[in-house]
Structures are given as C-alpha cells and as structure tokens.
Amino acid sequence: MIYEKYHYIEKVASLRSISKAAQELYISQPALTRIISSVEKELGIMLFNRSVLPLQLTYAGERFLEEARRILDLDAALRKELQEISEAKRGHLSIGANYAANALWLPHILPVFRREYPGISISIFQQSSPLFEKELLKGDIDLAFTTQSAPSKSLSYVYLSSALLLVFIPNTSPILRGRDISHNSLDCPLTVSPEELNHQDFVLLHPSDGLGHTISALLEENRIRPSHILYAPNIVACYRLAAAGMGITFATPYSTRYTLPGAVPVIAQLSTGTVYEQNAIAYPKDKQLSTSEERFIELSRQKVSTHPLLQPLSTAQWDSLRSASPGLEMESNYF
Fold first, then answer.
1. Which neighbouring-strand residues pair with 185?
2. What separation in angstroms does the CA of 120 have from each of 91, 96, 291, 292, 296?
3. Burial, 312: exposed, middle or buried (Cβ in 10 Å; 0-12, 13-18, 19+)?
4. How do the pLDDT tens digits run along the chain, 335 residues long?
5. Whole-prediction pTM
6. Which domains does the chain have, with CATH numbers?
7. Cα radius of gyration rounded to whole Å, the chain
8. CA gap 125, 135 in Å, rounded
9. What distance in Å separates the CA atoms of residue 253 and residue 272, rounded to the nearest whole number?
10. Are 159 and 128 in contact (CB under 8 A)?
C-alpha cells in the first residue's frame, strides 16, 4: 500500500500507544517504532511527544495527521473506483456501428445493457465497416459492428448473423421478359446468370462499405459489368430504389421487410453459387475483454439472432404485397 505509513501513524495517534497499535496492526512494536522514526526523520519534525503518556501528537503531528487522513480517504475512494471499473460497474464503452447496427440492433441492445451497467457511459460512432479496423487498433473505439468479406488478421470476430445475398430485380426489367414470375418468392426465386446481369443498371452500396466491398468482389468475380451504378447510403435504400425501378441490387432476405405496396421487386439468385453477408463484432486480437464488453457482445448475439427485422417476410406476406402491386399485375399481362 502506497500510504501504509500514514495508516500506521493514524493508528498510533488514535490509540495513543505504540504497543497497542502494533498489536492491532499485527507488526512488532520495534518495527512500528522504526517506521514512525523514519517518517519523522524524513520530514525533519517530531510527530509525537514521547515525554508524556499516553502519547500525544505535536502540533506538527496534528497537521500531518489531518492531511494524512484526507490522503487516505482519497486513496480509499480511488481504490473503490478502480475496483468498480475492474468489476465493470463503471467505465466507458465506445462502439463503432454501421447503418444496420445503429438503425436495427442498438435500440434493442443498449436499453438492456444500460439496465445492467448503469455506471458505464456509452459513445457510438457510425461509419463504414472497413474504416473501423484503424480505430480499433488505435484504441479510439472498443468494439465495432462489421460486415466483412475479408477478415483482418489483426482483429478477432464474434459472428452475429449470416444471410444469403440475393438479387432483387425491378419488375420492369427487360431481363424478366418471357419469365414466369407468378410464383416468385423467397422460397421460389428465379435463377439468373451473370451474363444476363451484364450491362444493366444497378443500385449498390459503395465498395468502401463492408457489404459493398463484398458485392463489388462478387461482381468482379462473376465478370458482371454494370451499365450504370447508383450508389445508395444503406441496404434499405438500395432495396427500395431497386424496387422502384432504378436498377438491380444485391440484398439479404430480411430486406423484404422494407417492401412497399406497389413497389415489389422480383427475387432471384445467381446461377454461379451463393454468397453470404457476415455480420460480426470485432475487437483487437490481443485485447483482454472486460466483463461489460463480454456482456455487450453476448447481448448483441441474443438480440441480433432473434430480431424480427432480420427475419424475412413469409411467402404469404410476400404474396399479399405482390397482389397489391399494380406493377406486377401489369407486367404479368405484358409478358
């Protein structure tokens, strides 16, 4: 203990006896006498008047003890605060969050976390997933929600959800000509080849976004060359703009939750195989997680896996929207 000598002197002053203080402190009387003498020698003053019994503090000793008690109180308060931080009762948590985390998940995660850890303050920083690695490694944020196609070797990941990437095609697209879309749904998607998607308009996330990077790599791998790309800020915007006829997009099944009546796209899958969106929480590989960080990750896993907006529309719900869409009815008559 840094201030152990102060504690010893306080005990002697309160009991007014070195022998009694030594007994309560579980040290020998000669050892305690040497400690007091060493402090007096260091300060150049006498703390106790040894010419009278019981012992009495000198004026200098009274002033010393007054300040020593204040220091001991501060030391005790600091130790208590550090203990609370160690036990995750107090502290700060900085979270990097992409659009999906901010819009869908955090409103369900943070209220529960706050009830369990009311003494921990929280900061949220939003940007695209690839930019979080630098912030994590610098220590500017503690945890980050990411959507990565190529995990970093410097980070550890706790995966939260995985979803198939589907192709969503405007129902007015010429590549649907001659296709039977009467039973189109998540359970009955069309199959399209990369060649059919060549030289079409697309609505996509920017490659600087985590999922956008995955989609960009998918286009490159399948040699799909868009005629024009409209970059949208998030996956919901991509889906709705595609449904409105602005171009083809890639999105996950849960995007169908954001379908508007009258703007229902056609669901398809690539003939060349499946690609998945991987959502995870990342942190530096050498980081020792605190109890509160571990709990935040566990809550995230629970909430994301059961979040209703991460569950796609049922076939019945999809059919209901399709039946309310005049665009699809017109197209089916046209084809």
1. 188
2. 5, 16, 12, 9, 11
3. buried
4. 457 888 899 999 999 999 999 999 889 999 999 999 999 999 999 999 988 889 999 999 999 999 988 988 888 888 877 776 666 667 899 999 987 777 778 999 999 999 989 889 999 998 776 778 889 998 899 999 988 666 788 999 999 888 889 999 999 999 999 999 988 988 899 999 999 999 999 999 998 887 888 899 899 999 999 999 999 988 889 999 999 999 999 998 888 888 888 889 999 999 998 888 888 999 999 888 888 899 999 999 998 877 665 566 666 766 776 666 554 443 333 22
5. 0.61
6. 2-87 (1.10.10.10), 91-162+279-310 (3.40.190.10), 164-277 (3.40.190.10)
7. 33
8. 10
9. 18
10. no
- Residue 170's alpha-carbon distances to 86, 113, 139, in angstroms, are 54, 41, 44
**Residue 251 contacts residue 165 (beta carbons within 8 Å):** yes
Asked if residue 242 lies in contact with residue 255, where contact means CB atoms within 8 angstroms, the answer is no
56's CB contacts (< 8 A; 6+ apart) are 16, 48, 49
Is 202 in a helix, a strand, or coil?
A: strand
Q: Are 199 and 226 in contact (CB under 8 A)?
A: yes
160: number of Cβ within 10 Å? 23
Residue 185 corresponds to which tokens in the numbers above?
A: 């749904």
Strands (E) across 71-126 are located at 91-97, 120-126
C-alpha span between 282 and 100 (Å, rounded): 15
Q: What is the DSSP string of 236-249?
A: HHHHHHHHTTS-BE
Distance CA(251)–CA(253), nearest Å, equals: 7
Q: Beta partners for 146?
A: 280
Q: How many other C-beta atoms are found inside a 10 Å radius of the C-beta of residue 330?
A: 12
